[in-house]
Design brief:
Keywords: Amino-acid biosynthesis, Arginine biosynthesis, ATP-binding, Cytoplasm, Kinase, Nucleotide-binding, Transferase. By secondary structure, this protein is an alpha/beta fold. It has a single domain, classed as Carbamate kinase, CATH 3.40.1160. Helix content is 40%, strand content 22%. It has 9 helices and 14 strands. The strands form 4 sheets. An 8-stranded mixed beta sheet has the order 5-8-2-1-11-13-14-12, with helices on both faces. Strands 3-4 form a two-stranded antiparallel sheet. A two-stranded antiparallel sheet has the order 6-7. A hairpin with a 5-residue loop joins strand 9 and strand 10. Bound molecules: adenosine-5'-diphosphate and N-acetyl-L-glutamyl 5-phosphate (X2W). Adenosine-5'-diphosphate (ADP) binds next to loops.
C-alpha cells in the first residue's frame, strides 16, 4: 500500500506529541545480542536510536552480546553453561566476555552511531566505577550482582551531547571484573538515571505463552503475575532476567518498560512514537 505525501506529513505531525513528551528525557535501550542478527538490521536499530537523539531525547544504550561470547567460547573448545539464563563464568570466560563486549560490540555500536552523525561514547561498567558489583553466587563464578551504580560519568557525557553505550561488565572492591547480565544492568541503570522509559530489544515478539507461537503474545504483564509465569515454566531462560529487571524498574519509578522484537524494522520508533505499543509491557 502506497503512503501519500499527506499521510507522511500527518505521521510527522502526530510524532510531535511524543517528541515533546520525551524531550530531554532519558530512555534506556537495551540492545540484546540475539537481535544483532545482521548488519542491515543492526544499522536500522542504530538509525532509530540516532533519530531519538536528533529530536532531543537522551537515549542511553546498554548492549548485550551473549551469542558472540558463546561463539568465541566454542571456537576455543569451551562449553558454555547457563543457570536461569546467566552464564557460568570462570576466569577465562570473564576475559573473553570483556574482550567481546567492551572490545568488539561496544566499539561497533559507537562507530555506527558516529557514522549517523550522533556523538557516541563507549563506557564499560568499570569506567569511572560506573557499575559496582559483588559475586552473585559461588556456582555462577564471576557473575556479578550490582551493588551500586555511579551515574556521574553517564550524566557528564550526556551533558556533553554524547549517547553513552554501556557494556555490562562490573567492577568489584578488589578491582576484579564481573560479568553481569545486560538486562539487569539496563533495569537498574534506568532506575538510577531516572529514565522515563526502558525498552528491551530482543529476538521474539515479546513474552509469549508458548515461546514458539508469536500469536500467543502477552501484551501486558502485571508485576504480581511475573513469579506465577516463571514458576509455571512459561517464562524461562533469557526471558527470566528480562521480566525481572522490568519488574524492578517499574516498581522503582520507571514509567514504562517494554520488551520488543528487534527483528522487526523500526520497532523502537513504533514503540516510542505511537500509542499502539508493541511487544510486552510490564506494569505495576
Ligand atoms: N515465555 C517466553 N516468551 C518469549 N521468549 C521466551 C519465553 N521464555 C523463554 N524465552 C526465550 O528468551 C529468549 C530471549 O532471551 P535472550 O536469548 O537472553 O535474548 P537477548 O540476547 O535479546 O537478551 C527468546 O529467544 C526465547 O527463546
Ligand atoms: C551473566 C551473564 O549471563 N552475562 C551475559 C552478558 C551479555 C548479555 O547479557 O548478552 P545478551 O543481552 O545478548 O543476552 C553473558 O555472558 O551472556
Amino acid at each position: 500500500m502506497e503512503i501519500t505525501p499527506q499521510q507522511k506529513a500527518h505521521v510527522l505531525v502526530e510524532s510531535l506529541a511524543y517528541i515533546k513528551r520525551f524531550h530531554n528525557q532519558i530512555v534506556v535501550i537495551k540492545y540484546g545480542g540475539h537481535a544483532m542478527i545482521n548488519n542491515t538490521l543492526k544499522k536500522a536499530v542504530i538509525k532509530d536510536i540516532a533519530l531519538m537523539k536528533y529530536v532531543g531525547m537522551n537515549p542511553v544504550v546498554v548492549h548485550g552480546g551473549g551469542p558472540e561470547i558463546t561463539e568465541i567460547m566454542k571456537s576455543l573448545g569451551k562449553k558454555p553453561e547457563f543457570i536461569d539464563g546467566l552464564r557460568v563464568t570462570d576466569k577465562e570466560t570473564m576475559e573473553l566476555t570483556e574482550m567481546v563486549l567492551c572490545g568488539k560490540i561496544s566499539s561497533e555500536i559507537v562507530s555506527l552511531l558516529n557514522h549517523n552523525d550522533v556523538k557516541a561514547l563507549g563506557i564499560s561498567g568499570k569506567d569511572g566505577k560506573t557499575i559496582q558489583a559483588a559475586q552473585k553466587s559461588e556456582k555462577l563464578g564471576l557473575v556479578g550482582e550490582i551493588t551500586h551504580i555511579n551515574t556521574d560519568l553517564i550524566h557528564t557525557v550526556i551533558k556533553e551531547g554524547y549517547v553513552p553505550v554501556i557494556s555490562p561488565v562490573g567492577v568489584g572492591t578488589d578491582a576484579e571484573s564481573y560479568n553481569i547480565n545486560a538486562d539487569e544492568v539496563a533495569g537498574q541503570l534506568a532506575v538510577a538515571l531516572g529514565a522515563k522509559k526502558l525498552v528491551l530489544i530482543t529476538d521474539v515478539d515479546g513474552v509469549l505463552m508458548d515461546a514458539k507461537k508469536p500469536e500467543t503474545l502477552i501484551s501486558e504483564i502485571k508485576t504480581t503475575e511475573v513469579s506465577k509465569y516463571i514458576n509455571e515454566g512459561i517464562i524461562k531462560d533469557g526471558m527470566i532476567p528480562k521480566v525481572q529487571c522490568c519488574m524492578g524498574a517499574v516498581t522503582k519509578g520507571v514509567e514504562r518498560c517494554h520488551i520488543i522484537d528487534g527483528r522487526k524494522y523500526h520497532s523502537i520508533l513504533l514503540e516510542i512514537f505511537t500509542d499502539d505499543g508493541i511487544g510486552t509491557m510490564i506494569t505495576t
